[in-house]
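Our preliminary data section would be incomplete without showing what the modeling component actually yields. Below, a chain of 187 amino acids is followed by its predicted structure, encoded as tokens that our downstream tools consume directly.
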Amino acid sequence: MAADEPAHTVLLRDGDLEIREYGSMIVAEVEVRGDREQAGSLGFRPLADYIFGNNAPRQSIEMTAPVTTSRGQSIEMTAPVTSTASGENVWVVAFIMPAIWTMETLPRPNNPAVNIREIARRRMAVVKYRGRRTASTVDQNEAELREWMTANNFEPMGEAVHASFSPPWTPVPLRRHEIMIEVRAAQ
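Predicted structure:
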């Protein structure tokens, strides 16, 4: 039961670390408050409700992977995404919409907490890992990614995005995760 994933080009690979180029994509996202573990569950429910038909015209949307969670962002309907103080424990949980949809054709969410926006083309540094996503595994993998970025002269351009690809019934050792950070190549 593999879900579609956003298309990308791998520009550099070093074991489980990569630099990828992603094209523009559309996401449905919600803002939630709580710790990292709570955020995924709190955000997943309204997003699943949206893709299962709580939208106008009550149309199902195929599930894609990954489900992403990022820290310290606030969604504004009429402005770009802006950063907030990290102490507020604000998270944005997002589903990436299938590539067949456009901003004009994607069903409108009935729930006002669900926002739809387009993310421009971007370059991401990525670390891949498997298993349980705990605070310590996330922190360890993010630190490894940041060290590798520094050693390879990639400048971070934002906060880390935590991506989970596996459905809940996947055995824990096989669960697939990534941490992504938008980068600009150092001059």
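The chain has a mean pLDDT of 86. The first strand starts at residue 8 and ends at 14. Preliminary results of this kind motivate Aim 1 of the renewal.
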